[in-house]
Amino acid sequence: PCLFCDEVYQITEKKDDLLAHLVVKHKFVIADVNLISNFRRYIDYWKKRLKEQPITDYCSVIYIYSSISDPKEEYYLLCDVLPEDKDLRQFLQKQKLEEVLASQQKEREDNSFNAQCLFCKEHFTGNRSSMINHMATDHNFNIGQPDNIVYSNEFMTELQTMLNNLQCLYCEKIFKDKTSLKEHMRKKLHRKIKSNNRKYDKYYIINYLELGKNWEEIHTEDDGDNNTDIEDETEEQNITDWYKWKEEAGAQAVCLFCEFSSSLPDCLRDHMQELHDFDLHEIKLKLKLNFYQKVKLVNYIRRQVYQGICYGCQEEFQDKKELLDHMHSTDHISRIPAPTVWDQPQYYFPTYENDNLLCQLEDCEEDDDDEWREDDGVPVIAEDIPTTSLASQTFRREILNT
Questions:
Q1: Of 163, 246, 335, 338, whose CB has the highest number of CB atoms within 10 Å?
Q2: What gap in Å lies between CA 234 and CA 273, rounded to an integer?
Q3: Residue 158: which H helix or E strand, with range?
Q4: Is the model's pTM score more than 0.85?
């Protein structure tokens, strides 16, 4: 409700309308509204108090001159210079902190969490920390320690809505399709949230600890660093430059499904995993493939995509984009046919000459803790050295003497 009349406003939707009404209609200003933890209770308190005593007992009077010839106008300012107002704000802040801590404790003990990862199809149930830790370790998307986060369901919904709207979580730029968004976030290192975006403050406990201060101001007081954003941007640029430099070095290997290429095996693997939901390493472990079977599977997929055939259902397409859209929408990318289809000698030979992805497969195998060597299912038989005339010592002596 308005402090002085019968007008009523929805705080969640029209808080600014109420403040404008107070200024225009009643010449009344509330200072630092954004620092009031519970605006509804704040208004209710002062509506009652302003009926008990004159407004000048609580407010500073400000005189405004529109022009030299116009008479002065009186405006009333309610702020925390008044001890009663300061105590009220601190009480509401403490009450809000207790409420947030109680909510956080409930979330920490709650095991009814049920959600899908923002970046892959893995589903998580139980405690919220499992998904938050998974995104940090598997997707390098770190939003902080689970115990420092509150209202996590609302937080995850907020982030998921942005991704559904094809909006980058960091720069908030909107893209034409999901593939472009994922590629942008990966290459620009935008797999994070914007630290100085105030809409995220409500999800972190640290922002409720001290009245009028967010996490950046508290952090600045701790280390005396006033250039957090500048340093973050500089570090991001340095990492991006290093990443691009590594990208340019070495032979480029092309993705199985699109035109993306990279000289880094990890980079190409992340690309196929995040943009196409295709994890060759996971397929290898699931199907217990040895190195040569991996080669044949890659060559088989290469040929099918080149011919415009979905290997999941064998449907043919004239346009490669239509093929990929179909495979993404139907999840046929992860539907690998039976080994009898692709585990054939003809797929020892690459579809493209000098397919560097096959070279990267060999590099990956060498870095894979020798797992495939332990039980690759391929017997290695030493080749017998054929007997020749040079094997005879008498014959060798005759040659040397001559």
A1: 163
A2: 28
A3: helix 152-164
A4: no
User: Which residue in 265, 268, 282 sits closest to 122, CA to CA?
Assistant: 282
Query: CA–CA separation, 138 vs 191, rounded Å?
Result: 12
Bridge partners for 73 per DSSP: 64
The shares of helix, strand and coil residues in the chain, as percent rounded to the nearest 5, are 55, 10, 35
C-alpha angle 39-40-43 in degrees, rounded to nearest 5: 85
3-class secondary structure, 13: helix
Q: Which contacts of 28-35 are long-range, i.e. CB under 8 A and separated by 24 or more positions?
A: 28/3, 28/4, 28/55, 28/59, 28/75, 28/76, 28/78, 29/62, 29/75, 29/76, 29/77, 29/78, 30/78, 30/79, 31/77, 31/78, 31/79, 31/80, 32/79, 32/80, 32/212, 35/89, 35/211, 35/212
Return the closest-CA partner of residue 193 out of 227, 232, 226: 232
Report residue 276 as tokens. Answer: 């196409």
Please tell me the distance from the alpha carbon of residue 46 to that of residue 28, in angstroms, as a whole number: 12
Which residues are within 8 A (CB) of 247 and not within 5 positions of it... i.e. 6 or more apart? 262, 263, 264, 267
Closest to 42 (Cα-Cα) out of 64, 19, 13, 25: 19
Write out pLDDT tens, residues 116-137. 888 888 888 888 888 998 888 8
Q: What is the number of H-type helices and E-type strands within the chain?
A: 16, 7
Instruction: Give the length of the chain.
Output: 402
Q: Which residue in the block uniquely carries the two structure tokens 């004159």?
A: 54
Give the E-state strand segments of 167-288 in sequence order: 253-254, 261-262
| CA 315 to chain CA centroid, nearest Å | 34
| H or E element in which residue 124 lies | strand 123-126
